[in-house]
Amino acid sequence: VPPGWSYDHDMELARFLYDYSMKDRGNCTKDYIRGVEVSSEMDDCSAAHLTDNQTTTWESNGPQGQHWVRLNMKKGTIVKKLWLVLDGQSHSYIPRRVAVYGGELDRLYHLRTVLISENSYREVCILRDMKTHLPVLEIRILECREHGQNVRLQGIKIKSSWEWDLILNADIFQPSRLVRYPLLEGVDNDVLYRRAVLIQRFVQLMDSVLHYLISPCEYSSGSFNALR
Asked: Which residues have CB under 8 Å from 37's CB, separation 6+?
């Protein structure tokens, strides 16, 4: 530990790293997704329509109950909210019950099953408040309204934060960037760099074991308070 360094210094350095990592992050669905795959699609109703922010739609073309949308997420994205944008004009094409799975492609686990209200005609939140990055999210359409065979979606929307994935170097600790962090002002750049590397390594290690400590399906404020 550097001479004169305290827990408050670590907290301020962590805030600096977070603020620095959040600069120039994207704010639309395409910024978080590497690619979209679907179980099937009709001509002119392709998977690309799910993220084009237009009034176009994706429509499946396959057996009832076997439709899915797979989102390959960019590294570091942590989903805070995931919405389906419904095509309210086609009642029997609207999903009634969906399940969301996440994780590595060969080890997807169940996150949530949602029964979509009959009063929902536009946007429906089907997942929220994930705590870690999930490389793949898969939305499985279990049932459509009125026993419809195929599903039609106008889009997918995502609100996400990012894990820290900084390429650290001493140059990011310029005095002009530290004016809002008084405890860090005057500290040698190399000291800040070495301490930042330590914090980042701790975050990565903590993320790698967190799912063993708390199951993703049991996240709650109570369980996190116990962990803390």
From this structure: 47, 69, 70, 72
Identify the H or E element spanning 74.
none
Q: Which two tokens stand for residue 98?
A: 């969906």
Q: Which residue has the tokens 């609100």?
A: 159
Structure tokens at 52: 């084009």
Q: Which of 58, 35, 36 is nearest to 46 (CA)?
A: 58
Query: What φ, ψ does residue 61 adopt, rounded to 5°?
Result: -150, 75
pLDDT in tens, 25-73: 556 788 889 999 999 989 888 888 898 888 889 999 988 889 999 999 9
Domains and CATH numbers, the chain: 7-25+164-210 (no CATH), 32-161 (2.60.120.260)
Q: Are 40 and 62 in contact (CB under 8 A)?
A: yes
Q: Looking at this protein, which amino acid is placed at residue 154?
A: Q
Residue 140 corresponds to which tokens in the numbers above?
């499985």
Residue type, 64: Q
Which residue in 11, 1, 7, 56 sits closest to 181, CA to CA? Answer: 11
Q: Which residues pair with 115 in a beta bridge?
A: 97
For residue 25, which of 82, 83, 77, 71 has the smallest C-alpha distance? 77
pTM of the shown model: 0.65
Distances (CA, A) of 224 to 118, 132, 213, 219, 220: 35, 14, 10, 7, 6
Rounded alpha-carbon distances, angstroms, from residue 39 to 47, 61, 68, 195? 10, 8, 5, 47
